[in-house]
Amino acid sequence: MGKPEDALLSEIMTTNVVTIDISERVEEALRLMVKFDVGSVIVTDKQKPVGIITERDITRAALRGDSLLKLPARSLMSRPLQTTTPNMEIWKTFEVMLKLGVRRLPVVENEKLVGIVTEKDLTRWVLRIFYEPNLPEEIRTLVRNPQIEALAGRPRCPNCGHYQDECICVRTQLASEE
After folding, report:
1. Is position 178 within any domain?
2. How confident is the prediction along the chain (178 residues), in pLDDT tens digits per residue?
3. Which residues span the domain enclosing 12?
């Protein structure tokens, strides 16, 4: 790895992003968030990212007394969607996320969603930089893992073996069963 100040988002971003079509209901967004244990879903229109629904969006709407489940995703999503590119420096991403007050930033290239960077991705990077070049084994496990939290009990995909929140084939299989 090169100098930390030269590190790019493409090195740390999560590439398997949970998405929902703009025509779907909020109920489906919630179902996907629970199923894949994620805090947000990216809303797409003709596969182009146009918004995001986060835990914060849902909490605020629930406190207003909105009947959420039947609402279309477009009515609850945050927009315009703030995005970044895979070639942005990681340190610059920290600045952008702090200025925007967001915990997740979709990564887009040529109008196509290619990943997402989250606070967890950034935390793993900071840990790795702090401990390099002598990463203790327990820290190495955390920073090399796609999820920083403890992984015990998270379901794995029966097809590919990845954790379900990182796997596209489980989402496809589950959707076809419903």
Report:
1. no
2. 567 778 899 989 988 899 999 999 998 998 898 888 889 999 999 989 999 999 888 888 877 766 788 889 998 999 899 999 999 999 999 899 999 999 999 999 998 999 999 988 898 888 887 877 777 777 766 666 444 333 334 556 666 665 555 555 544 444 444 4
3. 4-173
Q: What is the count of structural domains for the chain?
A: 1
Q: Name, in order, each residue with C-beta under 8 angstroms of 149's C-beta and a sequence gap of 6 or more.
A: 120
In the block, residue with structure tokens 């796609």: 146
Question: DSSP alpha helices (H): ranges in the chain?
Answer: 26-35, 55-63, 73-76, 90-100, 119-131, 137-144, 168-177
Reduced to 3 states, what is the DSSP secondary structure of residue 15? coil
Residue among 96, 98, 118 nearest 106 (CA): 118
